[in-house]
Design goal:
Layout: H1 2-6, H2 11-14, H3 17-35, H4 54-170, H5 173-183, H6 204-212
């Protein structure tokens, strides 16, 4: 069973511990399949480590060393790529953090501007309401005062019309009474002398010379 399973691989493959262990497991399973009817079970097969000719052993060791060196060189070649990828990722994270910070600041400024706009609208609405209320109150006051003046002026006009009618009904005696009450008392303060036109013309130049003499 071991020969059949190990014979599936070349000496380089079977030198690999992983392939060696897989071949041993398959041999154990094949043995158990045949021994099961007899009530027997193989739990462990400890075969010795395979040995080859010294030249083969040396070639295997050199191959393993070469493969390890290839892996080391591959890791060295991948290290700059990994470092570059790490740096790129770090820069992306830093820029993303800056972007998120700027985005947050812009959002805060936007919210601040929105709050300012709302406050300005509220102030404008308040000012409009106050001015409108003041205008309505001023208009109502003027309308009320105008109505009151209209009533007062109408009453005055009606009283004057009534007075005029009363005076008109009294006839010419009203005029005589007004003259007696207001004109006659003022005649005492008036003095007058008769005025006589000169019979002959007067020489104004002669009068002017008399006025000019000292």
């Amino acid at each position: 069973m071991l020969r059949d399973e190990f014979g599936r691989h070349s000496f380089l493959e079977i030198a690999d511990p992983r392939t060696y262990g897989q071949a041993t497991s398959r041999a154990k399973e094949a043995l158990n399949d045949r021994l099961k009817p007899l009530g027997l079970e193989v739990t462990n097969i400890p075969p010795p480590k395979p040995k080859f000719d010294q030249r083969v052993e040396t070639a295997i060791e050199e191959r393993q060393n070469a493969e390890q060196e290839v892996e080391v060189q591959e890791e060295k070649r991948n290290k700059p790529k990994q470092e570059s990828g790490r740096r790129v990722q770090q820069v992306e994270q830093e820029k993303n953090a800056e972007y998120q910070q700027l985005l947050g600041e812009l959002e805060a400024r936007k919210q601040q501007a929105s709050n300012g706009l709302i406050a300005a609208k509220r102030g404008a609405d308040k000012y409009f309401i106050e001015r409108e209320a003041a205008g309505i109150a001023y208009r109502d006051e003027k309308v009320t005062r105008a109505k009151a003046n209209e009533v007062a002026y109408r009453q005055q006009a009606e009283a004057m019309v009534a007075k005029i009618r009363a005076v008109g009904e009294q006839g010419p005696d009203v005029l005589n009474r007004e003259i007696a009450e207001h004109v006659f008392p003022q005649l005492e303060n008036i003095s007058a002398s008769p005025y006589v036109m000169p019979a002959t013309p007067m020489d104004i130049r002669y009068l002017e010379r008399q006025e000019q003499q000292p």
